[in-house]
Task: inverse folding
């Protein structure tokens, strides 16, 4: 069947029946949320275990179960690999891995797939695991990729029942309160695991810093935690957060950032109480900086900036240019320190941040957002999951909910990456539908979605180089010979869910090239 | 003989040509399946254009644009087989208006593919591809071929210029190569006297004929950057009708006269250049501001230059273009004042009145002329497609 972004979607994918994407807000999920397990612990000192192996025994982890992880240690994570190695030692097979995201550091997962320890993955795959899975016939069922909010929703809806949640925690007490903001290797919040810890049949906190009761803030609460394990290492601090994130130095990227900030300033949203989401990418950081200066010049105070918290966002808070930071994950040490110290720096979990099946999440309050993409097409559809070669290489993150929520969603991309055009006729994979994208901003000018004629007039009147997307595309294509296109077979590698649980696209196996 | 050209830096490609081996063509790139066919097509077309057969070529691509690959291959093949004739690309670039706005001239090193990619997007009134100071001696040949192919591949919305080396070093070779790419104009560094410009103009006459361009269509921007140049500014500016703008280069001039770079030290040269250009009905462009991080300093210097009578200023970083354009564009009140003056003059003419008055104050002819010039200039800026930096 064809879904609302004209993608061919099968009626079943693996063992699940597919609900096709019907439009950004067309599907309203009904019924009650899934029940949570009844738990009961009375004793003070019964939760502490001595090893991950012991935790596997205590939770009765066995073949075919679903285990979950957060990605807050990013490419420095040591938890996933340790747990899977322990599972392999115990001869457990057929696990479904349910992380918020996997990174290149998790490359050993490939061996566990080959040996049958892991047979399914539902979660973002950044890098080598995605490339491996893309070869086809590697997993028992196609992978499922969800956004931050979509994953939270799936747990609450019972789409995914977690058997054991493993929660890496930079600091925890022996009764199971845990935080990411203190300890030897802080990572910012670990609230990506909040929903897992509440819904999982068993929850295990793994920490390298067992501290006296009570540890706080309590992103993970004692009432949800069955066991605590102390280990030597949970992550490599060098790769968990950056010391200082670098602003891009590339003149073209800085131009994109400048145009983006100028577009925001020219928009009707740039008034007192203005809000925006910025990321940790080089362009995003530069836009955040430019916007701060523009707010200062205009005498505007923003209501909130949404993170990934970064030093630049924290500076805006300290300069009094935004009243609040709503922070789902911290990208550098300055952001973590500010989370601990600044009253206006507010920790939010992914449910509050992005869950559509609620009475409203924080992204719905955004005025402006600037997001990246691997490809954008002439219908303004955006791909962040695959590259033009068809390989699954990136996760969704909060892309869908930020794009859907913000009044003005801008995709900031160079027209070419090396010899590969970024603006294409039709994206390889639809992650986020064009109906929620307002402006595409490139070094060769801005293209406004025809749906937003009001915005187009406004930006053009401000003297911004507004052009048809086709024209920008053609200008870039003049500089490089056309690239080959992958030919896709029938085998489905992964399903891409829209934030409401419908399937917006599937990634198929590459069979050849044209 | 084995020749290497280009590099494995991002945005470039390394070409190794061997006239004694082959024939074979090896192409390696990241993402072979996506890119290899396209790369091979570029390689084959380039070899055909060079009429080169039977040599061995190894190309390692690092995300180079087509024109970079073509340029690298041409450079390698021409050094390996010196009898090879240069490629003459097809270029359709209309000549530019003599009197168009030239508020900014953005310098970019002609040897660096990464910096050259996208050089057309920053909205500079004059993009200046440099073959002189920013290009090391061993890269001069590769740079002029790269600039030629860039000129052919990129349809610049505004003006594109090439700064060649002084004619007594390798400027003539630069010229013969890059004129095949039909730049709007040529910047002549260290211009000192009428003869310097005349020699360049004569060479342009010859090459325009050879490459089928209208004779006189390539503009000249002499750069005054020596003590002799400052003293000879008037004859340089008036030397040839091709001279549409005279630029000032302060760094070399300071060294030449042994001064420290203060606005007082530059005052004489600046005033002289502005007057020399104005007398020759040419524009004038102030020196670059070298500290790209200091925006306040740039704005101050640009405003000063405007007050001195300059029409524009040099930029070494794209970020400098917007402040420069602001400094050299008519301000809103200036524009409305000019409109009022011209409207009053038109009304007076209709009524057959000889004198023009606004609010009872007489308007002199020079003031009226100035107002008309401001309006004409503003109209040109608007017609430029509103491409603001």
Result:
């Amino acid at each position: 069947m064809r879904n609302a972004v004209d993608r061919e979607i099968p009626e079943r994918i693996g063992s699940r029946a597919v609900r096709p994407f019907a439009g950004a807000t067309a599907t309203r999920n009904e019924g009650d949320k899934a029940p949570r397990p009844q738990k009961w612990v009375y004793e003070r000192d019964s939760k502490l275990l001595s090893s991950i192996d012991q935790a596997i025994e205590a939770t009765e982890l066995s073949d075919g179960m679903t285990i979950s992880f957060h990605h807050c240690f990013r490419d420095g994570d040591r938890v996933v690999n340790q747990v899977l190695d322990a599972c392999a030692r115990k001869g457990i097979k057929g696990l479904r891995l349910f992380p918020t995201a996997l990174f290149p550091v998790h490359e050993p997962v490939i061996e566990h797939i080959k040996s049958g320890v892991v047979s399914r993955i539902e979660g973002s795959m950044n890098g080598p695991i995605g490339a491996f899975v893309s070869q086809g016939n590697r997993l028992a069922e196609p992978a499922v990729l969800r956004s931050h909010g979509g994953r939270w929703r799936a747990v609450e809806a019972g789409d995914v029942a977690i058997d054991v949640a493993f929660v890496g925690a930079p600091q925890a007490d022996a009764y199971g309160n845990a935080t990411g903001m203190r300890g030897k290797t802080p990572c910012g919040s670990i609230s990506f695991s909040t929903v897992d810890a509440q819904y999982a049949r068993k929850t295990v906190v793994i920490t390298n810093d067992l501290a006296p009761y009570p540890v706080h803030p309590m992103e993970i609460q004692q009432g949800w935690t069955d066991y605590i394990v102390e280990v030597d290492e949970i992550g490599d601090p060098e790769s968990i957060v950056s010391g200082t994130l670098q602003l891009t130095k590339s003149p073209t990227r800085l131009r994109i950032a400048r145009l983006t900030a100028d577009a925001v300033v020219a928009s009707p949203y740039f008034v007192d109480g203005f809000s925006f989401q910025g990321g940790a990418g080089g362009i995003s950081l530069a836009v955040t900086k430019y916007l701060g200066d523009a707010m200062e010049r205009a005498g505007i105070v923003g209501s909130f900036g949404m993170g990934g918290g970064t030093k630049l966002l924290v500076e805006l808070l300290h300069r009094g240019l935004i009243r609040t930071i709503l922070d789902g994950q911290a990208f550098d040490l300055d952001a973590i320190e500010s989370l601990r110290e600044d009253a206006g720096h507010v920790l939010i979990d992914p449910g509050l941040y992005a869950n559509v099946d609620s009475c409203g999440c924080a992204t719905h309050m955004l005025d402006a957002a600037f997001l990246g993409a691997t490809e954008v097409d002439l219908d303004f559809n955006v791909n962040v999951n695959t590259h033009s070669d068809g390989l699954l290489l990136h996760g969704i993150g909060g892309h869908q909910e930020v794009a859907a929520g913000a009044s003005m969603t801008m995709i900031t991309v160079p027209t070419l990456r090396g010899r590969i055009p970024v603006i294409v006729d039709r994206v390889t994979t639809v992650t986020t539908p064009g109906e929620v994208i307002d402006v595409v901003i490139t070094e060769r000018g801005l293209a406004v979605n025809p749906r937003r004629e009001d915005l187009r007039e406004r930006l053009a009147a401000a003297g911004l180089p507004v052009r048809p997307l086709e024209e920008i595309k053609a200008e870039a294509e003049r500089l490089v010979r056309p690239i080959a296109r992958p030919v896709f077979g029938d085998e489905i590698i992964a399903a891409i869910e829209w934030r409401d649980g419908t399937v917006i696209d599937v990634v198929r196996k590459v069979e050849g090239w044209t | 003989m084995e020749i290497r050209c280009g590099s494995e830096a991002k945005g470039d490609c390394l070409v190794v040509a061997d006239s004694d081996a082959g024939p074979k063509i090896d192409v390696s790139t990241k993402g072979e399946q996506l890119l290899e066919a396209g790369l091979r097509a570029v390689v084959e077309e380039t070899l055909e254009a060079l009429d080169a057969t039977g040599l061995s070529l190894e190309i390692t691509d690092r995300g180079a644009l087509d024109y970079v690959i073509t340029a690298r291959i041409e450079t390698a093949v021409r050094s390996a087989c010196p009898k090879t004739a240069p490629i003459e690309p097809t270029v359709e670039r209309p000549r530019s208006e003599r009197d168009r706005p030239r508020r900014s001239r953005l310098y970019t090193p002609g040897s660096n593919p990464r910096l050259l990619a996208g050089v057309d997007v920053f909205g500079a009134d004059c993009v200046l591809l440099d073959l002189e100071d920013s290009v090391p001696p061993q890269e001069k040949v590769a740079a002029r071929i790269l600039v030629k192919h860039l000129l052919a591949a990129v349809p610049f919305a505004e003006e594109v210029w090439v700064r060649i080396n002084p004619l007594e070093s390798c400027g003539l070779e630069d010229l013969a190569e890059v004129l095949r790419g039909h730049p709007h104009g040529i910047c002549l560094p260290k211009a000192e006297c009428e003869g310097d410009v005349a020699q360049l103009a004569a060479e342009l006459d010859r090459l325009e004929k050879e490459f089928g361009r209208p004779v006189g269509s390539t503009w000249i921007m002499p750069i005054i950057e020596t003590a002799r140049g400052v003293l000879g500014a008037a004859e340089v500016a008036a030397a040839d009708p091709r001279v549409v703008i005279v630029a000032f280069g302060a760094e070399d001039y300071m060294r030449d006269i042994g001064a420290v770079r203060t606005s007082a030290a530059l005052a004489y040269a600046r005033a002289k250049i502005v007057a020399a250009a104005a007398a020759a009905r040419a524009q004038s462009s102030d020196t670059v501001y070298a500290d790209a991080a200091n925006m306040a300093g740039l704005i101050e210097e640009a405003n000063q230059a405007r007050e001195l009578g300059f029409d524009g200023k040099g930029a070494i970083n794209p970020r400098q273009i917007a402040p420069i354009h602001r400094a050299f564009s008519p301000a809103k009140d200036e524009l409305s004042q000019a409109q009022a003056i011209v409207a009053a003059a038109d009304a007076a003419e209709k009524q057959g009145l000889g004198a023009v008055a606004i609010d009872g104050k007489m308007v002199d002819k020079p003031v009226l002329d100035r107002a008309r010039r401001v309006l004409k200039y503003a109209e040109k800026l608007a017609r430029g497609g509103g491409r603001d930096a």
